[in-house]
Structures are given as structure tokens and as C-alpha cells.
């Protein structure tokens, strides 16, 4: 039954008028209709009260368990799954459906255990099977592989799943599989491929139905992410907003977070403070009460990146949140945490992350193949080396970052950080250098009114008063290392070698009174 409204009406009629046995028969007969639209939560609430405690029909119990799991009803899922007896599963299809659920749901927190069941859900089916259960098994297997950073293998599973769902005209799940495939290809740096494939599918979608279903717009998510990486922020915003509109309307909660992150960063590149503030406020409403580590970090990141220098005190608790979280998990920290700590280090707000930390992260990134993040961390490393007067090391990092730009077209990471090593790009890629210079990637160097940032002026004023690094750090409530960092930046900007020269030059330029 392809029409969603018809299915919903007929399901309600069966629930109202038929016997329990007839209801169970109807559920099994129409299994595809339950999962072929975004209305899964609605269908689940319709069948939620069905008593399956005395049923020996494992497929019906599995359908209800899947609906509960996908609707986020953990209590309902737990109370349903206890009635599934693995020994009573009949045939490979029921077993595959059960193993896929076991892989995704929290039967076990061991990732290898999850991987085992996900693979088993595929392997137990006949080789070459092109039905619903194989498509579901491969979709599940792809999700587990992706969670383990095996992006290429995951993309293959998602593509197989997409092809099967499409051949069965189960377009909602086909879109979900395609988007997951595209996201994994994106992580591998295959930006041009993803853009071409997404645009092909969006053109093709118009031929499936007279009225294009809302869920096709989810395809704009990987498309927007790719345009962001290519430093096309206006184009990225256009596609990401289309995706967000559909994700919001369909309440696809598992896709939130990533869409807000890329929208915010696109606005950051555009220096659109009003839109950044809008994303921040909406995220505080949507995620503020969740108290999940990742959503809390996301909101803190937005506050940090949208904060002006003069309002720094307002984000001190957010900075401390990142520092505490990093001290807890160290090198196992999510990359969003490491990226933000790197940004804070270059701004002179935190000195926690070290060169060794970044090198360790780069090693991990190279192993799993997150191309855009590899480039980002190379640029971050280059900046730190440059500030520490290690120009050769900085140049080596920039050369590798530029090679990624040349191979994949990814350039946005040159615009995220306040770059001081930009001059080194002249000898590496003069065209890229001119492009970055034209776009004023470092506000500190392109500011016409003042050479020093407000914080650097504050430090310079204390230097002029004859205070030591220790005295300045206590006055400004920051570490001695941070003060040294600021002084190093001040000397570089003023082109001086000591404090006496700095004071004289700063007075001449009007940077201090």
C-alpha cells in the first residue's frame, strides 16, 4: 500500500474492528508501509498498545520493537524486545531483522559485538538477495561500519542498500541510504563526486512523483557540506537551509547537530553575526535541556566562535568546559573539541592543547581518512610552529595542506583560523596566497584602525607599566604561557625584538597611551 494516508486510515480501521490475530496478520502483510515514510513515530503510537505478550509470532514483535526503537521510545522498546526468543525465530529473514536490531540497539556497548551482529544480519540472507530485509541489513551494517570510521566499506554498504530500496520503490529509505553514502564519501574527501551524485539524484527525484516528497530535501545536507568545504559559503547556506527545513518538519532528530554545525560555520566564514546568533539561540532551545556532552560542546563552540574580543569574559565557562572535557578523555576527544581548542589557542584564550596533541590527532585522522580535518589540523599545526618561530616546520605543514587543496579542492580551512603564517604561502601557491590575502583571512593583519587586538593592547599597556609576565598573568587572570603567547604576537606585529623597542613602537603607532 503506497499511499501513506490510505495506509494510516486502513491501519486505524483494522485496529478498531478486527481481532488481534487479524491485526497481526495486517502488520506482517504491510511491513513495507510501516518503514517507507518518515511517519514511523505516528505508526508506532497507533500500534503501541497492541498486546504481544502472548504472541508467538516473532515477526510482529520485531516490527513493533523496530518501530519503538526508531521512535526513540526506549521504555517501549525494552518492554517489547523481551518477548523475542531467538530460538523461535523462523527462517533467515526474521533472524536478519533481529540481528540488525541487535546491532543498532544497546544490547551491547562493545563496538565489535555490534559489528558482528550487523555483518551476521547480511550474511544470514541468501547471497544476491534483493529484498527489503537485505536492504535493511546493509543499511544497518553501513551505520555500524561508519561509526567505526570504516568510511569506504560503509559507503559500499549504503550504496547497495540504496539500490535495493530504490528498486523496491521504497524511496524514503532509499534517500536515507543515499545520504549516508554521501556523508561517508564526503569524509573521504570525495567532494566533487558527492556534488555530482547529489545533483543527479535531485534531478531524478522529480520524475518519481508529481509532488516531490519532503524527505528528498535531506539530500541537500551532504551537498551543503561539500560546498562549505569548497569555501562557497553562500551556496552552502542555501542547501543547508533546504535540508534543515525538511529535517525540522519531519523531526529527524538524529540529523540535528551536524546541520547546525555546518550552517554556523558557513555564517562564520561570511561574518554574518546575526545569523550566527540565530543558530546559537535556536540550538540552545533545541538542545539546551538535553545535557548530552556533544550538544553542550556544540552550543559552547557556537558561543566561543561568535564572541567578540571585548566580551571574552562571557565565554570563560565555555572555555573551561572544553578544557575539562579534554582533560577527561585526552586524545580520544571528538574532533569538534580539538578543533575548538585549537581555535582558542590561536586566539590566545587557552593554551591547553599542545603540538604533541595535534600530531597524535593527525596520526589518527590519517588512519581513518577524514580529509577535511587532516587539512584543518595541518593548518593549525602550521600556525603554532610559525608563532614559535619554526618557519621550516610551518612551511612543511602548509605544503601538505595545500596538496589537499589541489587534490580535493578543499580550501575552507584556510579561512577558519586567524592565520599569521599566510606569507609562507607565497612560495608554495601564490594563487592561493592572493586569494586568501584578498579575503582578509586574518582580521588582526588587515585591520586599518589598529595593528594590535584589544587584548594585545591591554597586555602592551601592562608591559609599558614595567610589569613582569607573572604580574600581568595575575592581573588578567590568565596563565603565564598565554601572556608569553600574546607578547610573541605583539613583537611580531610591531616587528621588534624586545620590550623597550615594543613600548617605543607602540607609542609611535598610537597603540598605547
Topology readout:
Layout: H1 4-17, H2 20-29, H3 31-35, H4 40-47, H5 58-70, H6 74-81, H7 91-104, H8 111-123, H9 132-147, H10 151-167, H11 171-187, H12 191-205, H13 220-229, H14 233-249, H15 258-270, H16 273-287, H17 293-305, H18 316-329, H19 335-347, H20 355-368, H21 371-387, H22 391-408, H23 413-416, H24 425-428, H25 430-438, H26 443-446, H27 454-464, H28 469-476, H29 480-494, H30 499-508
Helix pairs in contact: 4-5, 5-6, 5-7, 7-8, 7-9, 8-9, 9-10, 9-11, 10-11, 11-12, 11-13, 12-13, 13-14, 13-15, 14-15, 15-16, 16-17, 17-18, 17-19, 18-19, 19-21, 20-21, 21-22, 27-29, 28-29
Domain HTH luxR-type: 445-510
Protein name: LuxR C-terminal-related transcriptional regulator
Pfam families: GerE
User: Low-confidence stretches at least 5 residues in length (pLDDT < 50)?
Assistant: 440-448
* Number of E-state strands: 0
Helix and strand pattern? HHHHHHHHHHHHHHHHHHHHHHHHHHHHHH
Task: Give the % helix.
Answer: 55-70%
Tell me the number of helical segments per DSSP (H or I, 4 or more residues long): 30
Protein name: LuxR C-terminal-related transcriptional regulator
Domain HTH luxR-type: 445-510
Pfam families: GerE
Keywords: DNA-binding, Transcription, Transcription regulation
Explain this structure to me?
With about 525 residues, this protein is mainly alpha-helical. It has a domain at about 445-513: Arc Repressor Mutant, subunit A (Orthogonal Bundle). It is about 70% helix and about 0% strand. It has 30 helices and no strands. Helix 11 (about 170-185) runs antiparallel to helix 12 and helix 20 packs antiparallel against helix 21 (about 370-385). It is elongated and about 90 Å long. Residues about 440-450 have low confidence and may be disordered.
Amino acid at each position: 500500500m503506497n499511499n501513506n494516508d490510505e495506509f494510516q486510515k486502513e491501519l486505524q480501521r483494522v485496529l478498531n474492528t478486527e481481532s488481534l490475530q487479524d491485526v497481526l496478520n495486517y502488520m506482517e502483510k504491510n511491513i513495507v508501509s510501516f518503514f517507507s515514510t518518515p511517519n514511523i513515530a505516528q505508526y508506532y503510537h497507533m500500534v503501541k498498545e497492541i498486546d504481544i505478550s502472548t504472541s508467538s509470532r516473532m515477526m510482529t514483535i520485531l516490527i513493533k520493537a523496530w518501530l519503538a526503537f526508531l521512535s526513540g521510545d526506549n521504555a517501549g522498546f525494552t518492554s517489547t524486545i523481551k518477548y523475542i526468543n531467538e530460538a523461535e525465530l523462523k527462517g533467515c529473514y526474521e533472524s536478519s531483522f533481529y540481528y540488525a536490531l541487535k546491532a543498532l540497539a544497546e544490547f551491547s556497548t562493545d563496538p565489535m559485538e555490534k559489528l558482528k551482529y550487523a555483518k551476521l544480519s547480511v550474511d544470514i540472507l541468501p547471497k544476491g538477495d534483493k529484498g527489503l530485509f537485505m536492504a535493511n541489513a546493509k543499511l544497518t551494517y553501513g551505520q555500524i561500519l561508519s561509526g567505526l570510521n570504516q568510511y569506504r566499506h560503509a559507503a559500499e554498504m549504503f550504496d547497495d542498500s540504496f539500490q535495493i530500496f530504490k528498486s523496491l520503490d521504497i524511496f524514503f529509505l532509499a534517500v536515507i541510504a543515499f545520504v549516508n553514502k554521501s556523508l561517508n564519501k564526503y569524509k573521504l574527501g570525495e567532494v566533487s563526486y558527492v556534488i555530482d551524485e547529489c545533483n543527479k539524484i535531485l534531478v531524478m527525484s522529480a520524475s518519481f512523483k508529481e509532488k516531490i516528497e519532503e524527505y528528498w530535501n535531506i539530500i541537500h545536507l551532504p551537498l551543503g557540506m561539500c560546498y562549505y568545504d569548497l569555501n562557497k559559503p553562500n551556496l552552502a547556506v542555501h542547501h543547508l537551509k533546504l535540508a534543515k527545513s525538511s529535517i525540522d518538519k519531519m523531526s529527524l532528530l538524529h540529523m540535528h547537530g551536524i546541520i547546525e554545525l555546518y550552517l554556523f560555520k558557513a555564517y562564520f566564514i561570511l561574518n554574518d553575526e546575526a545569523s550566527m546568533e540565530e543558530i546559537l539561540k535556536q540550538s540552545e532551545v533545541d538542545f539546551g535541556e538535553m545535557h548530552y556532552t556533544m550538544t553542550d560542546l556544540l552550543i559552547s563552540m557556537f558561543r566561543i566562535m561568535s564572541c567578540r574580543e571585548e566580551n571574552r569574559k562571557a565565554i570563560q565557562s565555555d572555555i573551561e568546559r572544553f578544557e575539562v572535557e579534554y582533560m577527561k578523555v585526552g586524545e580520544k576527544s571528538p574532533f569538534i573539541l580539538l578543533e575548538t581548542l585549537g581555535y582558542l589557542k590561536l586566539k590566545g584564550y587557552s593554551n591547553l592543547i599542545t603540538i604533541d596533541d595535534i600530531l597524535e590527532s593527525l596520526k589518527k585522522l590519517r588512519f581513518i581518512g577524514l580529509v577535511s580535518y587532516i587539512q584543518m589540523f595541518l593548518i593549525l599545526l602550521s600556525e603554532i610552529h610559525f608563532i614559535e618561530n619554526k618557519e621550516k616546520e610551518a612551511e612543511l605543514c602548509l605544503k601538505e595542506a595545500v596538496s589537499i587543496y589541489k587534490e580535493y579542492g578543499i580550501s575552507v580551512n584556510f579561512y577558519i583560523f586567524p592565520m599569521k603564517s599566510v606569507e609562507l604561502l607565497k612560495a608554495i601557491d601564490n594563487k592561493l596566497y592572493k586569494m586568501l590575502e584578498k579575503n582578509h583571512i586574518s582580521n588582526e593583519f588587515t585591520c586599518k584602525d589598529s595593528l594590535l587586538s584589544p587584548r594585545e593592547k591591554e597586555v602592551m599597556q601592562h608591559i609599558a607599566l614595567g610589569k613582569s609576565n607573572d604580574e600581568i598573568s595575575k592581573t588578567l587572570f590568565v596563565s603565564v604561557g598565554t601572556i608569553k603567547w600574546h607578547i610573541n604576537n605583539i613583537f611580531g606585529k610591531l616587528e621588534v625584538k624586545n620590550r623597550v623597542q615594543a613600548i617605543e613602537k607602540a607609542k609611535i603607532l598610537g597603540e598605547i597611551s
